[in-house]
Amino acid sequence: MEKGHSGKIKTVFEISAGGVIFKKRGEEFFVVLILTKNGSVWTLPKGLIEKGEDPETAATREVKEETGCLGKVINLIDKIDIWFYSRENSNKIRHHKLIYYYLMKYIEGDTKDHDYEVDDARWFQIDRAIDMVTYKKDRQILKKAKRMLYEGTNIYSR
Question: What predicted TM-score, i.e. pTM, was given to this entire model?
């Protein structure tokens, strides 16, 4: 294992928030996925919580920035915990990240208005989205969102 100058791997702790923004057409639900990493990764919109922001506000902001669509938070889907590594100069850095994912009802906007960090943003029928996402944890979040949408009552009254 590579070590930093002190002989230990630096660990960075981060808290992010994101969402599954949905709309219903007929009896089916559609959600937005974003394409990142030079067109190689379909994932859910998310980003770091800024100083003074609560997770719901950060999720709403990040979803709007990355998808071009404004959503209203309905409920927390789940909080996931991930670990990964990156490089800074010649040092390996370990990241520990908590991500809060919210179910969000589509209010307005267009996926063509996504920001520069995203290669593409598109609506997909939820089962297709579950099949398309690159990461296992995204798949788990989408499956929980699907259960909430199809089993949920009064989702549109909130």
Answer: 0.88
